[in-house]
């Protein structure tokens, strides 16, 4: 950590700063520059709380040198981590596609959905029994029973299931239904109590990026999970909020190579929520793979026009099958398989 | 709701659209324009799910006419709602200032803080026993015991207490400790399970705006609370996330008059988290009152430099007292009291 | 255009609205809904100025139905337009890569740069003689003489040249030096006088997206050029400004398929300015092609570490050659050539 | 400037970095920390071009210590600068309100507008003869003749005039018509050739903030003007672009105290363009003054409903007069006059 001293700071104020640094257990090293005095802190800068040094009168600016995340960082572990879901590897040369409906509706819909997901060649299935909806007046998900529909349909086609957890009180049900991958949604990326709880489980977690979360905040959210013991974390970029409103979100493809450099954990992309339109799924999915993503989360539905939510962004079984073919070619072009 | 039809849509596709509208329980009214055909929907457009019509091949664009929120809307209730906290009114001519530390630290710190809050003329006190922190390695709050320190200190000075709830499992403790106002923080604005639960309580709620929440999403989050029975809601603007990084957030003063027009509920402002620096609190607090805010949430600490979190944004007792004097003059200039 | 009438509007206010619509040369059609009265406008809604109807007391909201752009729209011309630069087609199945240094430095540097661009298999060359720099104290470009260095070096390798125009007073020099493609930079996307002047030329134009320009504003900027007679326009996405500051900009890949749907004109991508780091150029360039871009603008330099500006984002000759090979595979995977 | 060295950098790479720093005319000072090596640069860090050090293999991160602006900085000149316009001071205790129509329409309209501006107690007048419009098909301004209408009307009421310059080729006409204050609009904040030219004039300049310009970029744009000799610069905050679309822009009131700290130059606010609605002008104008603004730019029109542009945001003469009374009270509450 480096502290820039105000040019007008008095000797007493500088002394107060140096004492405070020592109190925190670090060693200050003063460098007198032409226009500014700079103090370097020797020791573990993570001991310094937010704003503590900034509150002193001598301080113009505080610059951290170390990254605030540790367990999830590439520095901590140099090689790529593979997160396995019932033998299916995320983070290796093989790209994984998780497909399925936005929400679980009926047992029959889930059976048809699972059949289509398997037929298209996807290896995992997604679907939500509990739905975070902007309006209290719209469909909120089928609930516990939905997990049964999902489990049964997926088992028939031997597909591990991925589903979103929003409430700590539902963890027992999730364990009982043997949910294979727990998804933490964009609105809960900084629901720290939820992160701590999934950190205590031995279940892989897909951590979606918050709507306006920085890369650093996202890595810190994963660090919460890892710090509580669960290192099986998969990052999922799903588009960020910007000034542009012609499409739902802006898919941040730059986040893919940047994350792959900052962390050893796998990174997947959700092109369906990013674009918010079925017609945008194919170009965004291809871009994600070309940029180095380890997998995709895609919404598909046996009959998109009849879907109970997000009807305009789900792919039909035919569209999903066609897309898988196209993605395979892009994957091979960047030296991977699908 | 109005649907713009694609210029290239076939007669069969248009027919499919009209049938779907009728299935949803609404009546379509077709207008043939020079360049576009437009279909108006007569009936309750809230019956139409997101994306349902957009998924049809005939549809170019769907435009809602009605606002998606109801109970919290100015249309539903024309006159200003007063939310009373132990007799202290939010939303009337009197402006309320809630002050206190970022986090509860010790019994002694809370006593000193309460004394200073009362001496400065503020009528309520804030403080967090559970802290949402970006890093798992920083101070996470004192926990349940902190509520005791808070309750005791505030009672000694007859100050109602405002504190943040992050976890549904803590509601019982909050009720037991007689928390006067529950704060829902920015990271939980769309934690829908939490919103539903506080919606079932008979305790006033301060609902902070999500970091990148639109006015509409914020009103919908309040609608969740209201729809579950609790109408005692106070909106708190606390700065939004933008491209500017020289200060922590951008205080959105425009939100104040816009909310006052859209909803009958009170609107307060948190200038401390908005600016993130003690020096910015006074100008932002004055701006908020000048723009029509009904109250303020201000961080203060008996000794800011010693604060366990956000040390650089808390006001000292002297600064708080001076600010209250300055705010009183601005309040009077806009025809209010403080 | 559709006008939503306030529920509380009086009959006289509604009448005033209808009269104003007729004065503007359009025909109003009133529909009485359950909760709102809606007025449709029959005729050319482009006749209605911004804010004219909004200023009337009866009006709650005005919703345009037509797109404000015409000549550049896909509706105006259904088939893809090919913009040819000395026989090299933009917008067809072949993807074009334009490479070269950020700024023209010396005759020798440009000769080496041109040799490397040609050797790598790129078909056009970029370079700036006039540089838009944030600081008045940094290198502002070599100026007129730089165009000579550029012209000469590019001619030796038969490469058409692309260079940025910032000042209307430089158009004569650009014509004299036979600049093949004029680039309008991100800071000038809404420099309307400049757009009008290049609209009067018969030279292809690359129009970069403004740092926070919406798709609609970008299309309107192109419409300025087209409306003055020049239809040879190429859009260049170069990253947008968001809350994320870990990388320079966020490359908006979604803009590619959206633009290809909205306009018949070609769309290229600048991965160098988007990411701002040499290491990000390859993944972003691949993503752009996978998403459907018609070309790329890439910074390269004979010796990046010695570059006079943006030294950390230019590719070396070896990196450029290697990237071209990788891009060729991605291009083929999406059915195109490079 | 401080350079963080990569933990994996070799001794040779570190040596290369130190040599490069010496070549640039600075002295490197190496500090070996527990987890990182840090190199401080002694000398004028402004000599180091963007990206030069970042391009070296040893470098993890480069952190500037000095601010890149100089002449406009508070460090350069500690006391507030007063910019006088024909004897009217900007930047002192008196707050200045500049009012008038969005665009010059006719001689008669300008006469009525000037009478209303003077009657309301405003001391300067605004109006545009050349209008930057998003669409090439909407009214582009009356042109040169408009400046005559404006000059004549303003002279009759002894009001200095403020008008926007978009094109360097119009400077002679502006000088000939004796424009009192030249406004640089939001879309031209980084039109560097225009900034250089107004930097060579002896006419006060109002520099509007770019739609998504950071405080630092805005200060650097002013530095361009100052570096070319013209120090009579007034900053004008006019709202920034964010994710929120319910109002035109988000007025950034935080920018006011931050700028007042960073620069010695005056800061005014344009509440009309910020909110984009007449009803928002009063609350935003009051907030601006409460936050410390030195003046306001307000749109007013003799008959807003008939205005040729931005009809929904102009105040009527009565509204302007009433607002001036309200603003006077707020100004006095913060110790200023109006």
From TrEMBL, chains A, B, C, D:
Q: Which residues cross the membrane?
A: none
Q: Which InterPro entries does this UniProt record tie to the protein?
A: Aldolase_TIM, Class-I_DAHP_synthase, DAHP1/KDSA, DAHP_snth_FXD, DAHP_syn_2
What UniProt keywords apply to this chain's record, in alphabetical order?
A: Transferase
The molecular function terms of the Gene Ontology recorded here are:
3-deoxy-7-phosphoheptulonate synthase activity; aldehyde-lyase activity
Q: Which Pfam families match?
A: DAHP_snth_FXD, DAHP_synth_1
Q: Which Gene3D superfamilies match?
A: Aldolase class I (3.20.20.70), Phospho-2-dehydro-3-deoxyheptonate aldolase, domain 1 (3.30.70.1140)
Q: Where is the DAHP synthetase I/KDSA domain?
A: 93-326
Domain (DAHP synthase ferredoxin-like) spans: 1-67
Q: What's the Enzyme Commission number for this chain?
A: 2.5.1.54
A Gene Ontology biological process term: aromatic amino acid family biosynthetic process
Q: Which NCBIfam families match?
A: DAHP_synth_Bsub, PRK08673.1, PRK12595.1
PANTHER family, alphabetized: PHOSPHO-2-DEHYDRO-3-DEOXYHEPTONATE ALDOLASE
| Name of this chain's protein | 2-keto-3-deoxy-D-arabino-heptulosonate-7-phosphate synthase I beta
- This protein's species is Acidithiobacillus caldus (strain ATCC 51756 / DSM 8584 / KU)
Organism phylogeny? Bacteria, Pseudomonadati, Pseudomonadota, Acidithiobacillia, Acidithiobacillales
């Amino acid at each position: 950590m480096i502290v820039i001293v105000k040019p007008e700071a008095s000797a007493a104020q500088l002394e107060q700063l140096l004492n405070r640094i020592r109190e925190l257990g670090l060693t200050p090293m003063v460098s007198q520059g032409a226009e500014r005095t700079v103090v370097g802190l020797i020791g573990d800068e993570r001991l310094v709380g937010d704003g503590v040094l900034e509150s002193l009168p001598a301080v113009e600016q505080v610059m951290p040198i170390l990254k605030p995340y540790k367990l999830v960082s590439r520095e901590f572990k140099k090689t790529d981590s593979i997160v396995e879901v019932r033998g299916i590897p995320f983070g290796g040369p093989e790209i994984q596609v998780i497909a399925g409906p936005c929400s679980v509706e009926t047992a029959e819909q889930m059976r048809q959905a699972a059949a289509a997901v398997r037929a298209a060649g996807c290896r995992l299935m997604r679907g939500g029994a509990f739905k975070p909806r902007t309006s209290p007046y719209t469909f909120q998900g089928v609930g516990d029973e939905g997990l049964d529909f999902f489990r049964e349909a997926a088992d028939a086609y031997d597909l591990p299931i991925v589903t979103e957890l929003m409430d700590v009180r539902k963890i027992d049900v999730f364990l009982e239904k043997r949910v294979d991958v727990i998804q933490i949604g964009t609105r809960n990326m900084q629901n720290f109590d939820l992160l701590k709880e999934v950190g205590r489980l031995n279940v892989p977690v897909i951590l979606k990026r918050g709507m306006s979360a920085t890369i650093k905040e996202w890595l810190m959210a994963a660090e919460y999970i890892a710090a509580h013991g669960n290192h099986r974390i998969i990052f999922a970029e799903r588009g960020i909020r910007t000034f542009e409103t012609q499409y739902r979100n802006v898919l941040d493809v730059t986040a893919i190579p940047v994350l792959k450099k900052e962390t050893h954990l796998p990174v997947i992309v959700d092109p369906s929520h990013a674009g918010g339109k079925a017609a945008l799924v194919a170009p965004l999915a291809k871009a994600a793979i070309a940029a180095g993503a380890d997998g995709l989360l895609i919404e598909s539905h046996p009959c998109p026009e009849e879907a109970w939510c997000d009807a305009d962004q789900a792919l039909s079984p035919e569209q999903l099958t066609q897309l898988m073919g196209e993605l395979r070619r892009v994957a091979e072009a960047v030296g991977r398989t699908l």
